[in-house]
Every structure is written in structure tokens, then in C-alpha cells.
Design brief:
Helices cover 68% and strands 0% of the residues. It is mainly alpha-helical.
Length: 194
């Protein structure tokens, strides 16, 4: 595939994601575009070359193409979808395999190998250090069917405290926001206890 075909391929994957993404409260097309945007930003700050940015963006668009709440193999299913679909639109065997591996890296708990996988994992959890964390957290809670109670806030606080971004670029961009979100969650938890 020629480099000049890359933008058209990304356009195709964006359309496919828009059509096939689940319509869940959190795992939906908005999340896909959110991860795509974060991955592109992190890749640019991380000085990733054009070819690898293309693969990273491809993986971001397909990383949650199949999400069935309660199943533990959504990443495997999404990776398999990518491996079946990408060759049909002109991705090479090597490109397809790289995208498939990138998608698998987002499985929780994350254990990425290499800088590209680290970038995608950081993009997938970019919202932990952003102001919209609370809005998106409510969507996660609704998707999981969990009650809005002390336990929910404790789980969120523990998750944020245990989480570390894999790349220096993500830490630079999001660690201070994540710390602010932890403080706000702790305050909200204290208010619930009163």
C-alpha cells in the first residue's frame, strides 16, 4: 500500500467504526474517536514516524470494535476482526499483524511491549487525567450497571492511584490532571460519608 493511500484507509476505518461500534454508554463511537485523537496527539509529541502513526491510528479506530459487556475477550475479538478485515482493504500482512498486536495491548491489566503499544494503552486511558473524567466515569458506571455509592468512588480512587501512564509524553500531559481527579474523588467520597 502506498503512503498516499493512508488517509483514505483511515477514512474507511472511521466509517466502519461509526457503523459497527457498540452503542453502549461508554464503549461507543465517541470513545473510539477520543482514543484516536489521543493516540494521534501522543504519537506527534512522541515523534512517531508516519507509517507507525498510521498503524497506531488504525488500531485506535478498531481497538473496541467488538465489546460485549461481561465478556473478558473483547480485545481478542477486536484484534481478530482487524486481522480479518484489514487485508480486504489493502493492509499488508505485516501491517495487519502490528495493528492486531496493538489492539491486544489494550487488554486490562495493560502490559504493552514497545513504544507504540504503550502509546495506544496511554491513549485508551487518556481520560483519567482530563477534566471530562467524571462525565466519562459516569458512563462507565452506567455501562457496568454499578450503583453510585461509596464503593464506586473507592474503586475509582484505587484505580487512579494504581495506574501509571507508560510513556513520558502521557505522564507530562496527564499526570497533574489525574492527581487533581484523585483529589476531587476523595472529596466526593468524604461528602458521601457525611
Amino acid at each position: 500500500m502506498e503512503r498516499n493511500e493512508y488517509p483514505k484507509k483511515i477514512e474507511t476505518l472511521t466509517q466502519v467504526a461509526g457503523e459497527l461500534m457498540p452503542k453502549l454508554p461508554y464503549h461507543n463511537f465517541r470513545h473510539t474517536i477520543d482514543v484516536y485523537t489521543a493516540a494521534n496527539t501522543l504519537a506527534l509529541f512522541g515523534n512517531i514516524d508516519y507509517e507507525n502513526r498510521f498503524l497506531l491510528k488504525s488500531a485506535a479506530l478498531l481497538h473496541d470494535i467488538i465489546v460485549v459487556p461481561g465478556l473478558k475477550d473483547n480485545e481478542e475479538r477486536s484484534s481478530e476482526f482487524a486481522r480479518q478485515y484489514l487485508p480486504k482493504i489493502g493492509y499488508s500482512v505485516d501491517q495487519t499483524e502490528k495493528v492486531g498486536r496493538l489492539i491486544l495491548a489494550t487488554k486490562m491489566p495493560q502490559n504493552p511491549n514497545g513504544f507504540l503499544e504503550q502509546l495506544l494503552c496511554d491513549a485508551d486511558l487518556d481520560n483519567l487525567g482530563r477534566p471530562d473524567f467524571f462525565e466519562l466515569g459516569e458512563k462507565v458506571r452506567a455501562e457496568l450497571g454499578l450503583p453510585d455509592n461509596e464503593k464506586w468512588y473507592q474503586v475509582q480512587i484505587q484505580f487512579l492511584k494504581n495506574h501509571q501512564y507508560h510513556t513520558e509524553v502521557a505522564r507530562r500531559l496527564r499526570d497533574s490532571g489525574k492527581a487533581a481527579n484523585i483529589q476531587r474523588l476523595e472529596k466526593m467520597l468524604q461528602e458521601l460519608k457525611c
